[in-house]
Amino acid sequence: MERGGQDPRSKALDQASAGRRAAMLRFAIQRQEAKHYSEALDVYRRLIEEYPGTEEESEARERMLDLAWLFGVARQPYRMLSLYNTLETLYAPASTERTTEARRARVRQILEEVREQKQREAEAQARIEAIREGVGMAPGAARRSSQRKEPASGPRRAAGRRQGVRGVD
Fold it and tell me: d(Cα 152, Cα 169) in Å, to the nearest integer?
C-alpha cells in the first residue's frame, strides 16, 4: 500500500472512472449543442444515476435544468414538465408524502402558467382578428377614413356618366 491510503489498483480504477465520467459529459454536451436533446438527456441521466456525488453528476443536473428551461422558452411545456418530473424522481426520496405534495403543487403551478400563456395568446389573436375586421379601429380613425370617401352619386360618378364612362367608383 502507498502512503496516501490507496493502493495503485484502486487509484487506477478511480482515474479510469474519472476519465469515463468526463468523456460521458463531453459527449452529452456535444449532443446538446447539436440539438440532439434526447441523447444528451439519456447520458445526463446515466451520469446522475451511476456517479452520485461527483462533479460530473452536478454538472449533468445543471444542464438538465437548463434544458428544462429551454423547453419552457421554446413552448414545449409537456417536455419541460416531463424533465422536471424526471429530475425530481432522481433526487427526491420516493417514500415521503411531503415530496409528493410538493410535486403536485409544482405541476399545478406550471399548468396554470401554461393556461395563462395560452389565454394571452388567444387574446392577442382575437385583437389581431378584430383589427383585421375593422372592429378594433379607434373612433377618430373611423371618422377620418369615412370623411375621405366620396358618395357614390357624387361629382366623380356624374362626371363619368357625362363622358360616357360607366361605373367609376
Answer: 7
Show the domain range for 114.
Answer: 92-148
Q: Any idea which residue has 420516493 for its cell?
A: 94
| 131 plus 106 within the same structural domain | yes
107 and 78 together in one domain: no
The pTM of the whole model exceeds 0.70? no
Question: Who's near 137: CB < 8 A, 6+ residues apart?
Answer: 131, 145
Using pLDDT thresholds of 50, 70 and 90, give the confidence band for residue 1: very low
Cα 134 from Cα 117, distance rounded (Å): 26
Last residue of one domain, picked from the residues 35, 60, 84: 84
Mean pLDDT along residues 6-28? 84
Residue type (1 letter), 16: A
